[in-house]
C-alpha cells in the first residue's frame, strides 16, 4: 500500500523552497522568492524621439543625447542611515531579486567573467582581460537585488586625464603608456560589495615584559654597574571595537585584482543612495560572485586581525610573548551595495594589465609594464662606481699598498649601490604585481 503525504504538509512545501541546512539530517525550507514583475519590463527609450537613453552623471538622471530629454532619478541619498540587515534567514529570503529592469548578460570565455549590460548592446570586449572572446546571453535574475549604491561622480572624460597623469608617473615605464589607445578602453562598471557592521569584544592574555634597571657590583673592575633586565608576568585585558562599514568585494579574484581594487579605497559612504535601476541605464554592472556567507567569513578574518592589532596597542610595552586572544561578535549586520569603478584592461607585449579608477573620488591604481632595459642601466649606474674604484685600487695595492683607500671606498659604494638596486628592483616589481 502506498502512503500519501499529508495534505497540509504538501501545501506548505509548495509555497516554500528548500535551502541549505546547517544541521545534518534536517531539511530546511524558506519562502520562495517572488520575481519582480513591473520593474523588470522597464526599458529606456526616450519618450520624445525614441532613442535609447542612459544615466548621465552631469545631470544626475536619465538623459537623451539626441533631443536633450532629462528625467531625474527618483531616489534618495541616505548615507550612513541606510538600512542594515541582520544575519537571519528571513531577511535573506525576503530580499528582492535581479536588477529591477531588463538587461542582458556577457560571458567571457577567457577569464570567465559574468557581467550585466544594458539592453541593445551588440558587441563588446571584456573589461577585465580585454578579450574579444565573449558572447551575450540573457541576464540571470537569481541573485539578491542591491539595496543601495553610490552613483558615479567622475565622468569618462575625467578618467582620461586622471589615467594619463597616472600612467606618466615613473621613469622606468615604457613611453607608449600615455597612448590614447589605453585610455579609450575604460568602462564604467558597478561592482558588488558587502559591508559589515559589528561590535567586537576582544579578550587578550599574554606574558608582558617590563624593563628594570638593576645595580650590581663588578668585582673584577671593582666598581658598581647597572644593567637592564626584563621581568615577565602574566596579564590580560579587554578591548571593545566597533566595526563600521567593513568592505568586502563580491567579485572573484579570478578576473579582477583585489589588490588593485583595495588601492582605490576608501569610498565615502555618506553618498549611499537607495538603489534604483535608472542608475544602471547605459552602464555595466556585475552581480556578486562571493556569497554573503563567504564574504562574512572573509570579513571576520580581517576584523580579527584588526582586533589583534588593537589588543597589542592596549599593551603598554613592546615585550610580549605567549599572546592569545578571543573575539566575541555581537550585533552583526550587512548591506549589499554597488560601488562605481572605471576599469581598463590593456595588453602590452602579450601581457594583460588592469587600471582602475574610483568612480566616486577619482583615485587611480593599477599595473604598469616595466621597461627593463632602463632598470638594468640604472642598476649598472648604481654599482659601477664602487666596482671601478675597486678595480683601480687592486693594482695599486699589489704595487705598494696605496690601493687600500680606493678599495675600501669601492666596497662602501658597492654596498650602498647594492642596497639601492634591491630597493629599486622591489619597487618596480610591485608596479607590475597583481
Write the layout of secondary structure elements.
Layout: H1 7-14, E1 16-19, E2 28-31, E3 54-56, E4 61-63, E5 70-72, E6 85-86, H2 89-93, E7 103-108, E8 114-118, E9 134-138, E10 148-149, H3 156-167, H4 180-183, E11 187-218, E12 223-249, H5 258-263, E13 273-274, E14 284-285, H6 292-314, E15 320-348, E16 351-358, E17 364-366, H7 372-400, H8 404-432
Parallel strand pairs: 10-15, 11-14
Antiparallel strand pairs: 1-2, 3-4, 4-5, 6-15, 7-8, 7-9, 10-13, 11-12, 11-15, 15-16, 16-17
How many distinct helices?
8
- SSE sequence, one letter per element: HEEEEEEHEEEEHHEEHEEHEEEHH
Structural class: alpha+beta
Low-confidence stretches: 1-14, 34-41
Largest sheet: 9 strands, mixed
Approximate helicity band: 25-40%
Account of the protein in words:
- It is a single chain.
- Among the domains are: 75-190 and 245-287 and 334-366, no CATH class; 372-432.
- The protein is flat.
- The longest helix is centred in the C-terminal third of the chain and has 29 residues, at 372-400.
- It has helices at 7-14, 89-93, 156-167, 180-183, 258-263, 292-314, 372-400, 404-432; strands at 16-19, 28-31, 54-56, 61-63, 70-72, 85-86, 103-108, 114-118, 134-138, 148-149, 187-218, 223-249, 273-274, 284-285, 320-348, 351-358, 364-366.
- The protein has 434 residues and is α+β, with helices and mostly antiparallel strands.
- Residues 1-14 and 34-41 have low confidence and may be disordered.
- It starts with 6 loop residues before the first helix and ends with a helix.
- The chain contains eight helices and 17 strands.
- The strands form four sheets. Strands 6, 10, 11, 12, 13, 14, 15, 16 and 17 form a nine-stranded mixed beta sheet that branches.
Amino acid at each position: 500500500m502506498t502512503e500519501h503525504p499529508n495534505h497540509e504538509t504538501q501545501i506548505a512545501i509548495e509555497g516554500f523552497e528548500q535551502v541549505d541546512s546547517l544541521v545534518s539530517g534536517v531539511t530546511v525550507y524558506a519562502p520562495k522568492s517572488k520575481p519582480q514583475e513591473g520593474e523588470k519590463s522597464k526599458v529606456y527609450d526616450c519618450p520624445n524621439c525614441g532613442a535609447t537613453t542612459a544615466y548621465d552623471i552631469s545631470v544626475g538622471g536619465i538623459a537623451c543625447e539626441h533631443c536633450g530629454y532629462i528625467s531625474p532619478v527618483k531616489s534618495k541619498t541616505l548615507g550612513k542611515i541606510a538600512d542594515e540587515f541582520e544575519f537571519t534567514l528571513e531577511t535573506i529570503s525576503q530580499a528582492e531579486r535581479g536588477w529591477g529592469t531588463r538587461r542582458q548578460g556577457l560571458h567571457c570565455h577567457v577569464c570567465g567573467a559574468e557581467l550585466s549590460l544594458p539592453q541593445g548592446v551588440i558587441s563588446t570586449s571584456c573589461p577585465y582581460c580585454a578579450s574579444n572572446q565573449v558572447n551575450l546571453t540573457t541576464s540571470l535574475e537569481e541573485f539578491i537585488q542591491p539595496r543601495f549604491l553610490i552613483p558615479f561622480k567622475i565622468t569618462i572624460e575625467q578618467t582620461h586625464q586622471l589615467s594619463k597623469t597616472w600612467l606618466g608617473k615613473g621613469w622606468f615605464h615604457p613611453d607608449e603608456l600615455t597612448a590614447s589607445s589605453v585610455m579609450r578602453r575604460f568602462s564604467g562598471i558597478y561592482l558588488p560589495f558587502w559591508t559589515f557592521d559589528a561590535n567586537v569584544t576582544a579578550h587578550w592574555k599574554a606574558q608582558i615584559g617590563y624593563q628594570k634597571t638593576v645595580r650590581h657590583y663588578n668585582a673584577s673592575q671593582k666598581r658598581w654597574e647597572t644593567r637592564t633586565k626584563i621581568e615577565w608576568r602574566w596579564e590580560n585585558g579587554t578591548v571593545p571595537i566597533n566595526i563600521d562599514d567593513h568592505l568586502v568585494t563580491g567579485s572573484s579574484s579570478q578576473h579582477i585584482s583585489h589588490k588593485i581594487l583595495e588601492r582605490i579605497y576608501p569610498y565615502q559612504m555618506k553618498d549611499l543612495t537607495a538603489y534604483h535601476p535608472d542608475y544602471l541605464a547605459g552602464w555595466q554592472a556585475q552581480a556578486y560572485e562571493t556569497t554573503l556567507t563567504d564574504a562574512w567569513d572573509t570579513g571576520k578574518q580581517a576584523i580579527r586581525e584588526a582586533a589583534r592589532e588593537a589588543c597589542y596597542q592596549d599593551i603598554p610595552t613592546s615585550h610580549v610573548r605567549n599572546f592569545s586572544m578571543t573575539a566575541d561578535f555581537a550585533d552583526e549586520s550587512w548591506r549589499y551595495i554597488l560601488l562605481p569603478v572605471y576599469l581598463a584592461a590593456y595588453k602590452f607585449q602579450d601581457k594583460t594589465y588592469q587600471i582602475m579608477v574610483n568612480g566616486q573620488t577619482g583615485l587611480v591604481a593599477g599595473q604598469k609594464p616595466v621597461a627593463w632595459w632602463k632598470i638594468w642601466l640604472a642598476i649598472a649606474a648604481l654599482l659601477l662606481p664602487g666596482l671601478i674604484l675597486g678595480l683601480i685600487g687592486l693594482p695599486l695595492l699589489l704595487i705598494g699598498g696605496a690601493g687600500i683607500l680606493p678599495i675600501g671606498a669601492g666596497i662602501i659604494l658597492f654596498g650602498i649601490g647594492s642596497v639601492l638596486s634591491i630597493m629599486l628592483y622591489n619597487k618596480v616589481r610591485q608596479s607590475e604585481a597583481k
